[in-house]
Design goal:
heterodimer; A: 109 residues; mainly beta; 5-stranded antiparallel sheet; B: 114 residues; 4-stranded antiparallel sheet; 45% strand
Chain lengths: 109, 114
Amino acid sequence: GQNIDQPTEMTATEGAIVQINCTYQTSGFNGLFWYQQHAGEAPTFLSYNVLDGLEEKGRFSSFLSRSKGYSYLLLKELQMKDSASYLCAVRDSNYQLIWGAGTKLIIKP
Amino acid sequence: IAGITQAPTSQILAAGRRMTLRCTQDMRHNAMYWYRQDLGLGLRLIHYSNTAGTTGKGEVPDGYSVSRANTDDFPLTLASAVPSQTSVYFCASTERGGGADTQYFGPGTRLTVL
């Protein structure tokens, strides 16, 4: 079966760095997405990786290793507004998106 | 408006009742999707439409139906609601079909079936 694993919850301190991991086992691979979802709101797009390596976008970076079935989202200079759930999703060989359950990130002052 | 709108924002429904959740987008995107989101589970695809006039079944289609009469609207109907359909429902769209693009989500409908 297809599976995406993320930690359920993480806690970090304002101004620090946090890494959210995502491992996947899917039928084929056609890209990996990270979305941010604030409580009670819709998911919004953060990043997309299809080739191995690091994609940087401001305070957020996303890394992919296809051989290891592994990605991480790195958030730097954490701000209170970064408190949210972070969803990992993989596009399989049929171009269907398979979603992880999300990681709830709690930022403490 | 710009983006995707959903209605109603929330609804409490008696089991056995029929309910239609509305979704409208003004981005002229070809593809639209309906997901449900339950605590501890990832988003699960209910139905999708790659282009106006076509629809397809997702991971959890039972108890739900959709139609796509035009590009902008993609309503989701629960013919006879059951308590297990209590969930938050998100409509989404992509510019092209086939899951090739970034998904844009509506604000969601919180549905409670009693």
